[in-house]
UniProtKB/TrEMBL annotation:
InterPro entries xrefs: Elp3/MiaA/NifB-like_rSAM, Methylthiotransferase, Methylthiotransferase_CS, Methylthiotransferase_N, Methylthiotransferase_N_sf, MiaB_methiolase, rSAM, rSAM_horseshoe
Binding locations of [4Fe-4S] cluster 1: 19, 55, 93
N-terminal signal peptide: none
Residue span(s) of domain MTTase N-terminal: 10-130
Subunit field text: Monomer.
Lineage, opening ranks: Bacteria, Pseudomonadati, Pseudomonadota, Alphaproteobacteria, Rhodospirillales
Gene (UniProt): miaB
Protein name stated in the entry: tRNA-2-methylthio-N(6)-dimethylallyladenosine synthase
Location of the protein in the cell: Cytoplasm
Length: 469
């Protein structure tokens, strides 16, 4: 190889599970590995490195990882029989929580590392090449991974293009809700410095981002240090981001109700780019259960907070997470949740049956609720939530909304995008509008999506009709 040749491209396949933060982390892992010659591919079969970026929130998460690993092992063996190598890695929250167990049960895995260690990937790759066994890195390092990362190259996006991008500003959690593994897998709460966040946001916008979703396990407890040494809250950060040329939409997720401060509420009033849609998990409508969950809000405090937010931004729509069948939840507690859902009028939500996570306090609580009871409550709650979502979508018909088109539609001549309320919207539109925001008249409200007409076309049709009449 002469000095001008780049290293031969190696195929990197990353499979991402779980939350948006994992999507962001996967993009950063690809960035960190790029200088070693790794190029992302869409299939694991023949890859030189496969990373499973795992999520520990859902039930039986570890079992699913083991069954995926079983399949990947066959690819690895085939590759080895052809004289190649496949580096197999498990990253993310299952790796953090079950690292030693993975190494024991799946000794053919080369690297196991938690969410705080991926800046050390190049070093781990070198160690894995030297070592005969798996490299395990599940410490919580003293240094922050954000300080050791290359400038992001690959935008992490929910869509198919770069017009909507994720940006992690905060990570970890100190709240210790009694059902949740996150404080154990993602570690202590940490906020990235303001200058880093702004620089990354500007870079994303220069590459075509029109929408940025700020990410954090507890994003509204953001308290990043500014250059002058002061700490900025999320409201201040949002105001500054709104100054970036070309950035039309700002979102943030996930929020902790007790940490929503007045400045953030004021930002909802003052900053038009801050979208009128907020994911604000309440989990339960029963004070007794909220207390047992160690949530630091009661149901009435949540109601009062929503009232304040709506006073600041009257068109605000809310989404939430719910857990039904938490230990000790009675019929009455569940009815409190049901009533809260009706009162707040959530337009979207994720709802789950409580499932014990080993090592969390709730797993050892007495009065675990029986499965059939949990199932019946979940069905009732989801029926209500779905009905509210359908009603909201139907009520959107006739409204004019700005839609950000971030992917092609399934049929030729169609684009798909997102409304300010995150509803998928399908519109007949030319490809030239991809990656941009356009005004759309909503014509159809389905259960999970909307249909519409470009206002431009609607005006033209209107004129044509007048001419014909
Ligand atoms: N059981 C059920 N749902 C859970 N969640 C977190 N931990 C559990 C658990 N042990 C839900 C919460 C949280 C969402 C991301 O997942 O509702 O907000
Ligand atoms: Fe988990 Fe509670 Fe922290 Fe959210 S706030 S990540 S539910 S411990």
């Amino acid at each position: 190889m002469n000095g001008n040749e780049r290293p031969l491209a190696k195929k990197l396949y990353i499979r991402t599970f779980g939350c948006q933060m994992n999507v962001y982390d996967s993009a950063r892992m690809a960035d960190v590995l790029a200088p070693l010659g790794y190029v992302p591919v869409d299939q694991p079969d023949d890859a030189d490195m496969v990373i499973l970026n795992t999520c520990h929130i859902r039930e039986k998460a570890a079992e699913k990882v083991f069954s995926d690993l079983g399949r990947l092992r066959a690819f690895k063996q085939r590759k080895a029989s052809e004289g190649g190598t496949m580096v197999l890695a498990v990253a993310g929250c299952v790796a953090q929580a079950e690292g030693a167990e993975i190494v024991r049960r799946a000794p053919y895995v080369d690297m196991v590392f938690g969410p705080q260690a991926y800046h050390r990937l190049p070093e781990m790759v070198a160690r894995a090449a030297r070592a005969g066994g798996a490299v395990l890195d599940t410490d919580f390092p003293e240094e922050s991974k954000f300080d050791h990362m290359v400038a992001p190259e690959r935008p992490a996006t929910p869509g198919a293009d770069a017009s909507s991008a994720f940006l992690t500003i905060q990570e970890g959690c100190d709240k210790f809700c009694t059902y949740c593994v996150v404080p154990y897998t993602r570690g202590a709460e940490y906020s990235r410095p303001v200058a880093d966040v702004l620089a990354e946001a500007r870079r994303l916008c220069a590459r075509g981002a029109r929408e940025i979703t700020l990410l954090g396990q507890n994003v509204n407890c953001y308290h990043g240090r500014a250059v002058d040494g002061r700490e900025w809250g999320l409201g201040r950060l949002v105001r500054e981001l709104a100054e970036i040329e070309g950035l039309s939409r700002i979102r943030y997720t996930t929020s902790y109700p007790a940490d929503v401060d007045d400045d953030l509420i004021a930002a909802h009033r003052d900053v038009p780019q801050l979208m009128p849609y907020l994911h604000l998990p309440v989990q339960s409508g029963s004070d007794r259960i909220l207390k047992a969950m160690n949530r630091r809000h009661g149901a009435d405090a949540y109601r009062a907070l929503v009232e304040k937010l709506r006073a600041a931004r009257p068109d605000l729509a809310l989404s939430s997470d719910f857990i039904v069948g938490f230990p000790g939840e009675s019929d009455r507690d569940f009815e409190d949740t049901y009533r809260l859902v009706e009162e707040i009028g959530f337009v979207q939500a994720y709802s789950f049956k409580y499932s014990p996570r080993p090592g969390t306090p709730a797993a050892d609580m007495a009065m675990q609720v029986e499965e059939p009871v949990k199932g019946a409550r979940l069905t009732r709650l989801q029926d209500l939530l779905n009905a509210q979502q359908r009603r909201f979508n139907a009520d959107c018909v006739g409204r004019r909304m700005d839609i950000l088109f971030d992917r092609l539609g399934k049929r030729a001549g169609q684009l798909a995008g997102r409304s300010p309320y995150m509803q998928p919207v399908i519109v007949d539109a030319s490809k030239s509008l991809l990656g941009g925001v356009a005004a759309v008249r909503i014509t159809d409200g389905h259960a999970n999506s909307l249909g519409g007409l470009l206002v431009e076309d609607e005006d033209r049709d209107g004129v044509r009709k007048k001419v014909c009449a």
